[in-house]
Amino acid sequence: xxxxxxxxxxxxxxxxxxxxxISLSVPEGGAVGILGAxxxxxxxxxxxxxxxxxxxxxxxxxxxxxxxxxxxxVAALGIAHVPEGRGTLGGLTVRxxxxxxxxxxxxxxxxxGDIDYCLDLFPQLRNRIRSAAAAxxxxxxxxxxxxxxxxxxxxxxxxxxxxxxxxxxxxxTVYEAIGRLRKESGIAMLVVExxxxxxxxxxxxxxxxxxxxxxxxxxxxxxxxxxxxRRAYLGG
Length: 236
Ligand code: ATP
Fold this sequence. Notes:
Oligomer: single chain
Shape: globular
Radius of gyration: 17 Å
Bound molecules: adenosine-5'-triphosphate
Strand order of the largest sheet: 6-7-8-3-9-10
Largest sheet: 6 strands, mixed
CATH topology of the largest domain: Rossmann fold
Number of helices: 10
């Protein structure tokens, strides 16, 4: 069953059109990657889904159109966005950030258990539970941003460059935790990632963007087998 479907989506910043017609779909519980060079439109595709830019074309989530909805409405429908640059609340502690993530939930009784789950998923955060988010390392802030998005109990997670600026070992740890989260929660994921090697550890399929268009879409196995993907994204 398809959870998210984009059909010929366009998007502009003021008069400048940056998405020229993006199509992709994410199945319920599936994980799909978006690859592409700097400026290809990956971040803008996630912003289009979240209602942060003006769009044309069709965006449906769970069978209903979400194009033109505000970011708050989109979030309330069950889409959590972890933006590039992380988006934690720097002045709040780790625990407060996790609580804020859950503020739209009605099942407040399950919140402490879910915070505990996050601290199990990212043990480094347990030691920093009373620290201000601004005082965390880059890797810890990324972990907190993902955990905070999970606290909203979304059906779909939009992840933008979770490995950006992290040491390779930390990036690997973050992706392993995302993989575990996916397996244990069944949350569907749409993952923007410049590091295709990491993305391919998580996703079953991916689409490659160039100047605001899809140029290739396929299963992870198909894409890994293509010379142009190996040259451009896999370092060989
Ligand atoms: P990156 O990896 O560099 O973030 P990307 O594939 O995510 O690249 P986008 O950030 O979606 O690409 O940018 C697509 C195009 O839109 C680029 O040409 C970029 O310069 C332009 N752009 C992005 N944000 C804005 C903005 N707020 N106003 C105007 N143009 C923008």
